[in-house]
Structure formats: C-alpha cells, structure tokens
Specification:
The chain is about 55% helix and about 15% strand. The protein is of the alpha/beta class and about 240 residues long. Strand 4 and strand 5 form a beta hairpin. The protein is globular.
Amino acid sequence: AGSLMLGSGEFCTNPGLVVAVDGPSGSGKSSVSREVANRLGLAYLDTGAMYRALTWWCLEASVDLDDEDAVASAANDFQLQMGTDPIVETIMVGGIDIREAIREARVTENVSAVAKNQKARDALIGRQRMEIVSNGRRIVAEGRDITTVVAPDASVRILLTASEEARMKRRGEQIGATGDEDRLKLEVAQRDAADSKVNNFTEAAGGVTLVDSTELDFDQTVQAVIDVIRTTTAQHHGEKS
C-alpha cells in the first residue's frame, strides 16, 4: 500500500521524473519497469519493443538487414505507433497490431542485427527522446542504453541485473521454453554479446545505481527500484533546497 500511496502522493508534485532503467536480457527490466510506472503514475517506454518493431517491419518489407543504410532509412520512415500506458500495450506499424508478432522467433533471431546498426539506433534514439519529452518528462524508460545515451540526464538511473542462471530461468519462463536449455543459453548469450558491442549494460556507469535481482522475487525487485527512486529524488530535493 505504501508504494501505491507513492504514486498518488509524493511524486505527483514532481514536475519531471525520468527513470532510466538498463539491463541485460532476462533481468526483468520490462516487467519491473512497467509495474513501477503503473504504481507511480508514470508513462512507460519499452525501447526494446521499438527495435523489435523495426526488425519486424524490415522483415515484412524484405529490407536486407545487412544493408546499414536501408535499415537506417526504414528506422527513419516506418510508421510506428507506440503507446506509453503501462497497463495497455499499444505497438502498431502502419495500423497493424504487432504486439505478438514482435515476440516471435524470427524477430528475436534478427533483432540484434538491427540493434547494432548505429544509424538505425540514432534514428530510434531520436524517437525515444521525443517520447520522453512528449510525456512531460514523467516516464520510466527501459532498454540497454537509456542511462548512458538516451537519457543520461534522467532523474534516476538504474542498472537492473541478475546472475546468468537467474536470467536464463526467467527468459525460459517468458518464452515458454521447456528442456531446450542449450538453445536458450545460446539465445541469451548471443543477444548480450551483440548488444554489448554497442553499449555496456553489464556494469553501472558513474551515477547509475545497481539493483541485483538475483535473490529477489518480482514484487521485491519492484520495491527495490521504487526505493532507489525515492532515495535519489529525496537527495536531489535536498540538494536544491
């Protein structure tokens, strides 16, 4: 109940509260960030879904993923509509609902090729920053490079991590994998390896708070993140007053 009061109380008077959350695959950053946004009355931005949506579009439009300029052009031009409501997910491209399609294996297998394209990243980072501003800078944005690239000036910057074993277990539960541990381990390792070439999401940068959820359940992780937000904003408030 305390954290729910948080949303209706101390944070509603805050004119801007940008919470940046980074983390590797299977760290729980999407589900945790969504719930934190819900409890605190903030918007929610899933930047990973943006990269998946672009990947889906490129595959649908037969864009060569190895053609850096073609993918970058698609990133600039594709008609993406993403909602920022933490409860109701909206992901559409050209009016087509792709919420489920972007989680399919063909997108998962190809998203790293898109995510490591720096020109495409630059285009999507521009969109992400626009979302932060258009939501009155009251948002939880999560991904791989939010704390360092997209919103290095965020009110609160968090790196959410967990042991590889814990991340694999959660990833398996997410995609409903049973018994195919080798494929799962390979998928998590490949995704982390490809993305780490573009940015470092395994070590907290200066000013970024590390939250390790290895030994925490979902609610405990949500509370840990809220505690960091509360502590950090109180410090900021104290510095200003």
